[in-house]
Amino acid sequence: MRALRTAGAAFALCAALLATAPTAAADASPSASAGAGDSDGPTEAGTGFRTATAIEQGQTATASASAGDYLYWVFPAAAGQVPTVKATVKLPEAQARHGRTTWQLDVYDGLRRRQACTSGSQTVTAGQDDASVDLSCRVRRVRPWSEAWANEPLPGSYYVRLTVVNLPEQDLGLAFTATVTASTRDTGGAHAEGGELEPLTPALRAGATQAPDASESADSSDGDDESSNTASAAEPDGGWGSGWWSDRWVWTVVGGALGALAGVGGYALSRGRGSFRRPPAAE
Transmembrane segments in this chain: where (predicted)? Predict the structure, then answer.
């Protein structure tokens, strides 16, 4: 009876841990912060790394530009996450185009290192009759640290660049509309690792020119408005690190409880009845 009570307590402990732990489905779902998929996202894009428009994870950004322009956005990604960027380009009317166009979507980390896409259509060619083109790029899992010589994705800002890389010369300057969404998913405790690195989140500021005869007072007043001209990728909801909690804790405790249960059950089976009776005393 004591063995059965111990087994019941172990099973109750395992059930409570599994009920309070995050499920695997939640770990695999894309992160969606406040305003995810909201139509109130940014309606413009930067023209360089320093003027990139900051967006949040899961937020949809739109922009109108001319063929030949470079469009830049920036979003945050924390350790243990796998970023995925999707873009849709609405092309001009077919009557205004003169041939096929090739569009490309690139992703750079906070050090402006171009990151390879593990899946997705990074470069897509649209026919003259196509109304739109869809591009996507999934980056490798973000690591909390890396060797100096490695090109591993690190936590911090990630830049998205969208542009046309091949088109007829007559089509330069044609207006188009782009929609970009950057999302992430957590890989869970199966890929958790130690280490910590300061996030690579350089400040973004649109370049501003000043008259040669500007006074020092004007410089000081500009410094007060620096916060309005400076932007950076917002910190993710869970912070830049992967955190101390992961599903490894759940399976470690469950494995320990099952091991203890197996030990108790094995002892109860091997003990039996009368297997350890004392031998009769010698006459």
Answer: 249-269
Cβ of 85: how many Cβ atoms within 10 Å? 27
pLDDT confidence of residue 86: 97
Q: Which domains, ranges and CATH numbers included, belong to the chain?
A: 30-204 (2.60.120)
Q: Which of 205, 136, 207, 126 is nearest to 171 (CA)?
A: 126
CA distance 201 to 231: 10
The H or E element containing residue 184 is: strand 175-186
> What is residue 29's predicted lDDT score, i.e. its pLDDT?
40
Average pLDDT, the chain: 75
Give the DSSP letter of residue 213.
Answer: T
Phi, psi of 208 (to 5 degrees): -125, 135
Distances (CA, A) of 15 to 4, 12, 18, 169, 257: 17, 5, 5, 66, 11
Q: How far is Cα 116 from Cα 145, in angstroms, rounded to an integer?
A: 18
Q: Report yes or no: 104 and 112 within 8 Å, Cβ to Cβ.
A: no
Q: Provide the 8-state DSSP code for 171.
A: G
Tally of CA atoms within 13 A in the half-sphere of 1 that contains its CB? 0
- Closest by CA to 87, choosing from 97, 72, 99, is 72
| Region of 116 on the Ramachandran plot (φ > 0 left; ψ -120 to 50 alpha; else beta) | beta
* Cβ contacts of 13 within 8 Å, gap of 6 or more: 253, 257
